[in-house]
Amino acid sequence: MDFAQVRAIVEKECGYLADKSCIKIYVGFSPENSSGDHLFNLLRNEIENTAAAARVIKTGSFGCYDFEPILMVDTPGRSVVLCLNAYPEMATEIDTDTFAAGMAKRGGEWYLVSGENKEHIPYITSLPLFNLQKRILLRNCGWIDPCSTAHYILGSGGYAGLYRALRKNRRELMELFYSSPFQEYVHAGVSSLDQWSEFVQSESSDKRLVCNAVNSDSGNRLLLQSDPHSILEGVLISAFTLGTSHCTMYVRSGTRVAANLNTLLGRMETYNLVGSRILDSSFSAHLEVIEIPENLRAGQESESLRCITQNRAPHILPTFPLDNKAMSAPVITTNPEWMACVPTFFLTDEELRTGFGSSKDGPTRLITLSGRVVHRVTAEVPCGVSIRNTLEDIGGGIVSGKSFKALQIGYPAGRLVDPDALDDCIHCRTSGEACSGSASIEVIDRDVDIVEMARIRMETVNDQSCGKCLLCFEGSRQMIRTIERIAGGKGKPRDLDFLTELGAEMKTGCLCSFGRTAPDFVRSSIELFREEYEQQIQSSSRNVQTS
Amino acid sequence: MFKHRKSGLCRRIPGSEFMADLSDILTMNIDGRDIEAPRGASVLTAALSAGIYIPHLCHHPDLPSIGECRLCVVEIEGYETPQPSCLTPAGSGMKVRTKTENIDRKRKLALELLLAGHPSDCGTCNKYLNCELQSLKQYLGVEELSIWSRTKPFPLNKENPLFVHDFSRCVLCGRCVRACHDLRGVGILFYKRKGVETYIGTPDDLPLAESGCRFCGACAEVCPTGAIMDKEELVHGKKRKNALVPCRYACPAEIDVPRYIRHIRNREYAEAVAVIREKVPFPWVLGYVCNHPCEAECRRGPVNGSISIRDLKRYAVEHDDQKLWELNRRVHPPTGKKVAIIGSGPAGLTVAYYLTLLGHSVTVFESMPEAGGMMRYGIPEYRLPRGVLDSEIECIRSMGIDIQTGFIVESVETLMENGWDAAVVAIGAHKSLKQDIPGIDSEGTTTCVSFLRDVNLGRKVKVGKRVVVLGGGNAAFDCARVARRLGAEQVHLACIESRTEMPASCDEIEQGEQEGVYIHPSKAVRGIICDNGTVTGVDFVDVDSFCFEDDGTLELEVMEGTESRIAADTVILAIGQEPEIPESFGLDTDGNNCVEVDSYTLETSREGVFAAGDVVTRAGALIGAIASGRKCAIAVDSFLGGSGSIDEKLVAMTEPSPSLGLDKDFAILDRCETICEAPEQRISNFCKVVQEMDASSADHESNRCLQCDLRMKITTVKVWGSY
């Protein structure tokens, strides 16, 4: 089946997308948001009861968690409007002639995305939340149904990229990759594209491409929940470029994401998008989704590989070079973020749904704001924007107007930076540390107890540690215990030296980059906020003296 | 070629600048000493080979290094921070320092982290004084921990066969995981999480047998602490090699069982037979009638049944068409010495064989019409086909040994005066023990030895309709089953031992019962009832308990009031045998009527006269007699001025591959039991009872072997005291 035939089939399935008389309502929310489901069901019932010419579609999250559920109404020939913070009551007893106008009567913050502005509502781009974002990776999040391949193909130029890529040869494709702005993406301390060149040259027939989606951070998780299609397409295009037919994605078992991916794969097979002779080309690839059980530790690249190759791969794999004797075949690992941007290389600006009108230039970063910030969001920000802008304009500034104490960049093992770093620009070329592919910025204000936060962070680190090297696993446990003692009033002055020393050891001695970045929070917190620790230690010695 | 943009972020491969020197040996300097190291070695292995100790734990010579424990850090000139020496390749001209203040501090921290999760009570652990962690503690002088310590809450897991897991003692060195995955290619052990602790477990935490474990013992062998150990009862009190490869050492002749089973698995039957023949000259006979002490000790036993080693031996012999052993056999040049051997049983013929190999001229004197001893005149034909026996005896005779049958030796003295340089008494134990009970000499009673001898000589032997055999050993069963074949309608077998204590082998008991022998355990004979001097029955009383004193007398406790009688017209006494040594031999005997010999040289009280077999040990097993024959041959050859070395090399020793591969169902492969003819067919004739094993059973059974000998090949880690 070639692409034209696929399009014909999906057009029948998703005819409503092209139907000019059908109003499309998109309800976008992340799985944690319960009122989104409620709103969706109410709307669906309304439409059924009134037999209106409309269709409600459950899309994934936009990334603006604090504003969910988000309602978008696309009235063909008229306008596309968006409502932040929609609530279920808006869906009852609405005027079915003009959904949007009807619902707007009930309140809510409405913005115009495109089309005529009869109601004189503000443009979406007037909101810095959206204005500053350049949504390339997140282009589809909130716009398409994550469970429907058909919607992706029709609504967002899905798999057009794959179709075009299959018509090029590998040399051209590698050039495209090299010249894309996203070529700066770094993986586990080594430049991705250097790894890719080595891989392409390898003769082994067993080489494979792996996408690591276990233990994802918020940015990758958003993509997996809301736009798994681009990831899948990206994996296929990359596999073709690299010349391999084995692709594996692995996810935590028992999650909605895992179930969805399996369903999507089934559909893709019927559309001849995966399997043998994809889209009638000579390329065949099979894509496997493997679920990793909860208690099997899948850390960085090395351990991930162990899991996916049915535990036949060596359990400690150096990240570079790839084709060493211990490993039977070379493997490339990627993450969902990298894969999601690959299809964009093949789409024109017009085809590229960039969400809110920005053009296709990258590179951008997915930044998740959390902590004491007004709006918790995952936003896609172009490189060069300062952290201050991101926090204040997209995030809405610090909660309750208190002053910044510090920021934690990266989670859970990111380092603390002090407010002077606010004017730093967000870089794309990271320093090869873990969890800095999708940066998360946690805002800490004066009310936060750094010592307690350090303990919580180390607990998360220890929980995610795979246990293969003692420094990371045992070291993080020792740090937790020491911090507990300090917080509990039993600290001693040499505890800080111990933490620093242990941290320095972990930085150089751990086997993977997760371990090497594990002590960052504690070390940077001691550097910046030593007096807080010392205060807690002194209070304990004072207690000792008085008792 | 694609444009290759170096981002400058590649991790530097340590030591790359030292690789300029391309010769195979390079020189480096460690702690001021110049040492040589082969190219490709790590700094750690280079130092250890040169006798310089660098503390290490996760490193193991047979496993790939991972640099996990951080104990082996050293300072290398040109590097900012100390490097793990197990991961750093040795480079020409490298300058390494293994002991500095900085390194000591780092090592102490690393060791403390190892000990932090480890229980502090060394004394209660079975690995005490054999533990690498303990020796590291001593070396680094860490007695008190300065950091927080805890005991991991893992319970002792004894659920698996052969191994005990105590993960509260695990230090996460990862050796077992690497041994399982990389060395053995099996890969069933993984790092798992349980709450806040990490342990090593199988997928889904299934028992080892259900996860595809090979029970090869590599994990227990490499574990440096007491986390994975052999079950105490399997190794207690034994020397290491006896406990770990028990089949080889349970065999009195020390046949290299794992090696020949490996050949059988590879369908190399000629090689398998050659391995067996390196130790014994009767592989075919043993394949029929050996009592297999090896199978009792087989480590597969606790898993799901021992390997059918005897049946595999028989299969190999019957499929050997190359006779590799014969081609590779080397007969020494004639020494001119003459040795006389009295008795052509298994012991006698074994001595004959080995002495002939060593170049001596051997003559065997046999009182019976044909050679073979108990193999012919004791063991019935249905257990050991005469064709098999004849063929093996012919192999020995054809070496040029003179076997004179029908010749009774009166005096050893005469022999020695007639020009024999040495003599060996191997006349066996052919006198039945008699119990002093009333009616023992009535008409219709006979003893085991004379009964079986008459049958095996081809004489017409009459048995009545109802036979009672007294005794619980293999000889008693031989009598009982022969009696059935001779037409007895009812055969009862009674012994003082209980069912589980009966010394007969399980297959004898089973086959006997199938053939209609009624077994009455725990019965002691009160008396034999006669009428007019002819046997009419046997009176019994139930046994409560019994034991044999040191001097052989029986202490019996009976339960009064439990008298019973079995009607019989024939009684066969099979309660044991002892040697009957003629006075004229002039040899000292011990309390059991056995020849007294020096326990090392097997020399009797007369110089130049040796003894072997049942005449020394009083009715042991066939394999024991053969082993005794070997020992005697060594002694005789030494006496005659030879080297006393009878070890042969009949087949090249191939190094087995340490990689076993994953087989999920390995532990549930069932044992192939011996298949016998139907009992109805069996009792009307003396044809052989066992059926042929087929090729797929041979493959299946040999594949079940755990290959315990591979474990002995794993390098033992030397602790600091050896450097």
Description:
The complex is a heterodimer of chains A (547) and B (723). Chain A is globular. Chain A has 21 helices and 16 strands. In chain A, the strands form 4 sheets. Chain A has a 5-stranded mixed beta sheet with strand order 2-1-3-4-5, with helices on one face. In chain A, strands 13-12-16-14-15 form a 5-stranded mixed beta sheet, with helices on both faces. Chain A is an alpha/beta fold. The longest helix of chain A has 18 residues, at 470-487. Chain A has helices spanning 3-13, 15-18, 34-50, 99-105, 128-131, 149-156, 160-166, 170-179, 192-201, 218-226, 228-242, 256-270, 301-308, 336-341, 387-394, 450-464, 470-487, 493-509, 513-517, 520-528, 530-546, and strands at 23-28, 54-59, 70-75, 79-84, 109-115, 186-187, 190-191, 208-212, 246-252, 286-292, 331-334, 364-371, 377-382, 404-409, 415-417, 439-445. With 723 residues, chain B is an alpha/beta fold. Chain B is built from 28 helices and 25 strands. A 5-stranded mixed beta sheet of chain B has the order 2-1-5-3-4, with helices on both faces. In chain B, strands 12-11-10-13-25 form a 5-stranded parallel beta sheet. Chain B has a 5-stranded parallel beta sheet with strand order 15-23-16-17-18. In chain B, β16 (466-470), α22 and β17 (490-494) form a beta-alpha-beta unit. In chain B, α11 crosses α15 (309-318). The longest helix of chain B is centred in the C-terminal third of the chain and has 18 residues, at 622-639. Chain B is elongated, with a radius of gyration of 32 Å. The relative contact order of chain B is 0.11. At the A-B interface, α8, β7, α9, α17 and α18 of A face α2, α4 and β7 of B.
